[in-house]
C-alpha cells in the first residue's frame, strides 16, 4: 500500500534509511561482529581466486560498486558481468571462481541462465536477492537476503542501495575493511535521511535542468562513474529523457561532440582522488554551453554547485550519491505527467531471455 505517498517510487526512496538500519541489525550483533553470514560462505569465498558478480540492469550497477569493496577489502580480483552477455559468451574463468548473483526479484531469466550453467560446471555460487525463496536463491549454493521489503515501482531504488550495503558487509566479513563498518553504515543512514528531507531541492533541479530537454548526461570518475550509469538509467527509464552515464574522462574521446547550448550535464563529485580532473571536465562542457549541475560531497564542494551531499567514508558515498539521482528522476517524470511507477514497455521482473 502506498499510504500517504503518490507513488511507490517515492515511498521506496524514503525507505532506504530504514533498510540500511534493518541490514545493519541483521548482519551485525551488538558488538559489531558479523552474524547471519554462514562461515561456509566466508570460507568458500576465501578459498576462491576470483569473484564473478553477475547481474542485470540496476543490480549490475550495484555490482560495479561492490567490486571495489571485494577487491579493496578481500584482495580477491573481482569481475562484474552483465548476465545476458555472460550467458552466451562465457569469459575464460580462473582456476577457482566464485559466483555472486545480485537480483532484486531472484527471477531474472538472463541471470538464471548463467546460474544454470555455473551449477552444471560445478562452481560455487551465492545469490544476494530481495525475494528469498526465488529461483536464483534456491538454485545457488548460498543465499543472503536484501531485506528491503517489497519493491513495487518498476524503477529499482532501495534494492540498489541494499545490494551495495550487503556487498560491503560481505566483503568486510571475508576480508579486512579496516572500518567500523556498522558505525559507518549508521552514519550513512543518518545522512540518507538528511538528503531525503531535502527532496524539494531536487524538484527545482529537475525542473530547471530537464524541462523540455530530450537528452542529458551523468558523469563521474571511479565510484562516481559507477553511480553515473545507475543515475542515467533511473532518469531515462521513467522520464524518457535519453540519458547517458559514463566515466568523465571518456568525454573527450567522443561524447563531448554532443554538447550543445543548454545540454544538461549532471556531474557527481564525491571522490577526492579524481575531483580535480572532474572539475576540469565540468569546465570543458560548460565552455561548450552545457548546463552543468554539480552534485558534490561537502568536502569537495565549490560555490555554484547545485547540491551538497553530506560526507561519509568515501567508499560508501555511492549510497548517498544515488539518492539525488533517484529524486531528480522522480521529479523530472512527475513534471512530465508520466506514470512514475509504471514506465512504458517495462516489466518489474524480466523473466524472458
Ligand atoms: C531498473 C531495474 C532493472 C532491474 C533488472 C534486474 O530500475 O529495475 O534494470 O534491475 O531487470 O532485475 P533483478 O534485480 O530483479 O534481477
TrEMBL record:
Entry keyword annotation includes Zinc: no
Signal sequence region: none
Keywords for this protein: Aminotransferase, Glutamine amidotransferase, Repeat, Transferase
Annotated catalysed reactions: D-fructose 6-phosphate + L-glutamine = D-glucosamine 6-phosphate + L-glutamate
Molecular function GO terms recorded: glutamine-fructose-6-phosphate transaminase (isomerizing) activity
Keyword Repeat among record annotations: yes
Domain SIS: start-end pairs: 41-184, 206-343
Name of protein: Glutamine--fructose-6-phosphate aminotransferase [isomerizing]
Organism: Leuconostoc kimchii
